[in-house]
Design a protein that fits this description.
alpha/beta; Alpha-Beta Plaits; Rossmann fold; five-stranded antiparallel β-sheet; five-stranded parallel β-sheet; elongated
């Protein structure tokens, strides 16, 4: 048996890739066409919507309509101005929703597990001269609290951790208390107050990094406060880190998530108000949204309809390329014809490869390069290529008296090939038009099959090879046209 055919639906990915490369310009053109169609359609829609918005006379309160009474004109102005304010508010709410969505996705506090929250604490001990008043003590403590809470010093840590500075600031909490009892020290300073700093986060590595930055910058800031405010000293107890359950963090996370519903409900309430205004004015709600350019389709698109259509052009290009690839893939999978010599020999992998005839059709330089890459062409001239092929065939049929060239390729191409090769052999084509020809195969010592790319039907090739195998004749190999 000379035949080992593979499933007709099997995919030779290398062969399919070569088909893609050959069709690359068709694929790109398909993408460009659909891109242009979507771009043109979207631009037309935007311009039309923009003009429709501009020509909505009822919403233009700069002029009084013909036959409109003063009362009706005043009511129209009131309704239009109210609609403008409401839609402006809706736009603000939509932006708040986007900001809230970004916050929920990116903030550190939303990444904390409340049942396993990392926390690092440290106490700052502030001592001032015993002669100072309590009010001054409170000022000093308040200045430190304000400085620590501001997080203005966290830029370096923010860059190091690649976390937004604002998300680090909300992890910090600061409180302070005045001491009930003053403890005199040798240099006439006494303990006056304690500042408690608390940093929470998903890991102690993060909380300790932030705490180290706080303590480092407090030490630097204390020099400035001493020079400009009041002489004092600052020291701190050792920092401590641990994990704990924090219901407060859970509440913050729940509130952040629930805020979406609150904002969306506000938009729904405003939308009902627009319905009422639209009824009063006798126009559609959509016209009001379009006119004030705050709806999803209006503001940026009405301002610059061409620029807003670019994303649709990009999308169209991607869709066009995808559709082209999908079409080529399905055609490749379900086609009964092979496109490359590699496609033939991957399906009929027990058939010896004698050679491949250079394509005779006119091809672009790009396709020629792909053909050479796939083995469907070579770097030799047509004449030299045919000489090499003839030599290979003659070597294979040495000692063979009766040689037959047959196959499902174009009969004229097979006849022409045998003449070009200068081989003394019989040629029999159109086998399935005259099945009795198969009865003569047994008298041949060697059979060369000739098949043609994008022409020969693989089902007929399979049947042909089976019949030849049944005749016990030797198939010395295949030549691909």
């Amino acid at each position: 048996m000379y035949l080992n055919t593979q499933n007709s639906l099997a995919i030779d990915f290398v062969d399919l890739l070569l088909v893609y490369l050959k069709k690359i310009f068709v694929i790109l053109i398909c993408g460009i066409v659909i891109s242009g169609m979507l771009f043109g359609y979207k631009t037309y829609s935007n311009v039309k919507a923009s003009k429709a918005s501009e020509n909505t006379d009822l919403l233009d309160v700069s002029v009084k309509l013909p036959n409109e009474s003063e009362v009706d004109y005043a009511n129209r102005i009131q309704n239009v101005n109210r609609a403008k304010d409401i839609i402006s508010s809706i736009d603000v709410l939509n932006k708040q929703i986007e900001n809230q969505r970004y916050y929920v996705s990116n903030s550190v506090i939303m990444q904390i597990e409340p049942e396993h929250e990392a926390v690092t604490t440290a106490n700052l001990i502030v001592t001032v001269d015993a002669s100072t008043t309590t009010n001054v003590d409170l000022v000093i403590l308040s200045l430190y609290k304000q400085f620590i809470s501001s997080g203005e010093y966290l830029q370096e840590v923010s860059e190091e951790l690649d976390i937004d500075q604002g998300y680090l600031i909300e992890l910090i909490s600061v409180s302070y208390d005045l001491s009930d009892v003053a403890v005199n020290s040798p240099d006439s300073f006494e303990t006056d107050g304690i500042i408690t700093i608390r940093v929470i986060g998903p890991t102690t590595d993060l909380t300790e990094t932030v705490m180290d930055s706080i303590l480092k910058n407090v030490e630097i800031k204390s020099v400035e406060f001493n020079e400009k405010k009041l002489a004092h000293k600052v020291s701190y107890a050792a920092k401590q880190s641990s994990y704990m359950v924090d219901n407060g963090t859970r509440d913050k996370q729940v509130n952040a998530t629930n805020r979406f519903e609150v904002l969306q409900q506000q938009i729904k309430n405003y939308d009902k108000a627009i319905d009422e205004i639209a009824t009063n004015l006798g126009i559609s709600k959509t016209k009001i949204y379009e006119y004030f350019s705050f709806s999803d389709l209006s503001s940026s698109e009405a301002a610059n309809p061409i620029k807003s259509s670019i994303k649709y052009a990009v999308l169209g290009f991607a869709v066009g390329v995808f559709v082209a690839l999908l079409f080529i893939t399905f055609r490749y999978i379900f086609s009964n014809k092979f496109a490359t010599q590699a496609g033939f020999f991957s399906r009929f992998n027990s058939v010896n490869r004698i050679g491949v005839v250079k394509p005779i059709i006119k091809r672009s330089n790009h396709v020629m390069r792909i053909d050479k890459l796939s083995g469907d062409d070579n770097c030799f001239s047509t004449e030299k290529s045919n000489m090499l092929l003839a030599s290979n065939v003659k070597n294979l049929i040495v000692g063979k008296q009766n040689v037959l060239f047959t196959g499902t390729a174009d009969p004229e191409r097979i006849d022409s090939l045998v003449k070009q090769l200068g081989i003394d052999a019989d040629v029999k084509t159109k086998l399935f038009d005259n099945p009795s020809v198969f009865e003569t195969f047994s008298k041949y010592d060697a059979i060369v099959i000739v098949e043609q790319r994008n022409y020969s039907d693989c089902r007929l090739i399979s049947e042909e090879l089976n019949l030849i195998a049944n005749s016990k004749s030797l198939i010395i190999g295949a030549i691909i046209l």
